[in-house]
Amino acid sequence: MNEEAFQKFLKRGGRSSSAAKRVIAQVLAYEQYLREERNRNELDEASPEDLEAFVTRIEEKKKGAAKKSLHGIRYYYEFCSNPEMRSLAAKLRQQRIKQTPFLLKDFRGINPVHIEKLAAIGIRNVDQMLEAGRTSKKRHDLSTKTSIPAEAILELVKLSDLTRIFGVKSIRARLYYDAGIDTVNKMAKWNPNKLRTMLIDFVKRTGFNGIAPLPKEAEFTVKEAQRLPKIIEY
Description:
Number of helices: 13
Number of strands: 0
Radius of gyration: 20 Å
Helix content: 55-70%
């Protein structure tokens, strides 16, 4: 590993010197494992199976302990432009972070009265919304039960669907939805470069309060969408 170049990359990304040192130490430990246990002379030779084996080795001692190492390894694969391995490191880390499902009230541009009506019947977060609105019949029944317009129910389902993509929450979900990329399935069909160009133009044209994704984020987002299964009937 070119430590000097990697350290400069981390600092350009806003990491402090101490944070950069921690990340480099995590990657060096991974590199040592690859050489000693997997017969890999270079980090870039590692396969998804190698990374998964590394995680297993760490967690033989303590469950969940690999998330810190995966944090650093993810940055390394971003540095060396390996989206497949970066995505895997991010996914493995995410699986080890206990998260509270995103709350519907935290979406931008949603009628608070609708949020209150849904909360009254126990639907407060995106997981509950996806289950309650999984099919067109369920959405119709939910609309009838709550007196919330069907189009508002569908909007919440679509926003919730978009949050299945790692890193997509309030601002990103609203940006993609308003720009017409309102489902995971639609996102999966985009070319990352064309996606970013379109979103830059959309933000400028509409005055959207937010920015378009950077190139790496756009690439990661499309790949994540391609990986996710279809769970909603539209």
